[in-house]
């Protein structure tokens, strides 16, 4: 093109691939999915439902869902989920932890044990079957 863009249209896949002079590449798929490949190695994928997924050169990922939920996957595999209601979750190989806006924290370990710490200082621990092992009611 006169502005130095290069545009390919792949008829069989119904996909348009545009390359810009500064190195940005944008792909438009027939499904409505759009991918942007940035010169620094970053990729942004916009899905038809408007979910946005960012892939970073260092291996980290971030997904932003239409309801405002954000999921970040770190290089070590840990996952952080931020919900639009103020709750937050951390998933690791050892546990899943949910933090509530009031300060309550509930942790579920891979062996099934659950630990809930309340803002009042109360701590409740349950075994994998849900039986209370300890409860420090204040």
From TrEMBL:
Gene Ontology terms: cellular component: centriole; centrosome
Pfam families hit by this protein: Tcp10_C
Coiled coil ranges: none
One GO MF term: tubulin binding
InterPro entries: CENPJ_C_dom, Tcp10_C_sf, TCP10L/CENPJ
Domain Centromere protein J C-terminal: 21-49, 57-91, 96-125
Alphabetical GO biological process terms: centriole elongation; cilium assembly
Family: Belongs to the TCP10 family.
Official protein name in the record: Centromere protein J C-terminal domain-containing protein
